[in-house]
Amino acid sequence: MNPIIDTIIVAIWLMLPAYIPNPSAAFFGGKTPIDRGIYWGKSRLLGDGKTYEGLVKGISCGFLVGIVQHLFLSEYLNLPSFGIFPFFLVTLFCLSAGAMLGDLLGSLIKRRVGLKRGAPFPLMDQLDFVAGAWLLLFLFAREWFTESFSLDIILAVIIITPLLHLLTNYIGFKIGKKQVPW
Ligand code: CTP
Ligand code: MG
């Protein structure tokens, strides 16, 4: 197959456990703000868009999708695994929890620069969860990370993630699960 298409497929495959948490959190929603309504200066610490329920459901969904990919699909589809047992569990946790952590840090920064919940912050909104996932992988699953993410995969992720993010958020907006289409 076309090597560019191949690279894009592997990039999406490897990042899927990090792509799932955000839309899952938006889909299932939540009530309890992680910052418990606390302010830092004039703005909320994180805002009402970051809830405990969303955090737990988002991480769980990303992790479970990764389990299914790893155990049932990778061999069949001839796509990379997430590491050997039991290490793939660490990898999947880094991807899913890292994505939610990056999303939280993104909101923390958005609130600090005075942006309200849902206000767009181009590139931050689209890539904060990638940065979070890669940070945890670099810290706790470095060997798998450096072996799996070659430079072309990294570039593919940076280019396609914003496009996928805009597309899923637009769908989320259309089905009434997102308040804004970004
Ligand atoms: N969500 C949640 N808990 C999280 C993350 C997301 O409940 N930890 C839900 C919220 O309902 C949120 C939606 O998913 O509104 C979409 O997430 P996101 O776009 O990250 O939040 P925004 O509302 O746009 O807020 P922010 O400006 O902080 O990004
Ligand atoms: Mg947002």
Largest sheet: 2 strands, antiparallel
- What Rg, in angstroms, do the CA atoms define? 16 Å
Mean pLDDT: 97
Compute the number of helices.
Answer: 7
Strand content: under 5%
Query: How helix-rich are the residues, as a percent range?
Result: 55-70%
Strand order of the largest sheet: 1-2
Order of helices and strands: HHEEHHHHH
Question: How many separate structural domains?
Answer: 1
Strand-pairing-aware structural class: mainly alpha
Uncertain segments are none
CA-based shape: globular
Hetero groups bound?
cytidine-5'-triphosphate, magnesium ion
Task: Characterize the structure shown.
The chain is mostly helical and 182 residues long. 69% of the residues lie in helices and 2% in strands. Strand 1 and strand 2 form a beta hairpin. Helix 1 crosses helix 7, helix 3 crosses helix 4 and helix 4 crosses helix 5. Cytidine-5'-triphosphate (CTP) binds next to helix 2, helix 3 and helix 4.
